[in-house]
């Protein structure tokens, strides 16, 4: 039986997927396309893509329990898509594949991904010529809640104000499995500038790039503050981009 919290999270993907495509300028033509979902999580975006006419959708992640949910959910609730969609535990930097794809998608994964420059090289290698990568992610680490609550610092930007050593020592007092660095919490810790450098120095062409895309009324304040040069790094909360081979 599927866990209710997993089902609820999967179902919330209906709204999040719509936001994802809207922020990227609209859903592309997926008819008869082969698609890789990097960091597929519970698989909601894979189902959305398969329903939109893709001929093959492969979701990859490194977290076994959510992949197990995605696979069971596919087989129990989306039997009509079983021939199109597959889920696999796959580390894009370590595992080898000969597969090529027309499209790569990645939703809310880059803020957790280390060695992003090498990941973008892998994207280039597995995309067909003319293929595109549709990417959206946030919050960025230097934003007020960019630690995703994982540092337990409670107040806005406190994960930046206090030293990493202090934060780690504080966290380790309550953990059986100790951490040595912030990245051990599943956070890339990259700055906005680092993300922009990775994207612009990639072999892929940057065809679309926007930041701070949100419909939340409160976001307008940060959108204005991010236009001030000194505050841009700390008031930019997400990145949406399209890369092309």
Molecular structure report:
Helix content is 36%, strand content 19%. It is α/β, with parallel strands linked by helices and 245 residues long. The protein has one domain (4-139, 187-218, 237-244): Rossmann fold (3-Layer(aba) Sandwich), CATH 3.40.50. The chain is globular.
Report the helical percentage.
Answer: 25-40%
Tally the structural domains.
Answer: 1
Specify the CATH architecture. 3-Layer(aba) Sandwich
Beta strands, count: 7
Descriptive keywords:
Rossmann fold, globular, 7 strands, 9 helices, seven-stranded mixed beta sheet, alpha/beta, single chain, 245 residues
Tell me the layout of helices and strands.
Elements: H1 4-23, E1 34-38, H2 44-51, E2 56-61, H3 64-77, E3 85-89, E4 101-107, H4 116-126, E5 127-137, H5 158-161, H6 164-172, H7 192-201, E6 205-211, H8 219-225, H9 232-235, E7 239-244
How would you briefly describe this protein structure?
This protein has 245 residues and is an alpha/beta fold. 36% of the residues lie in helices and 19% in strands. The longest helix is centred in the first third of the chain and has 20 residues, at 4-23.
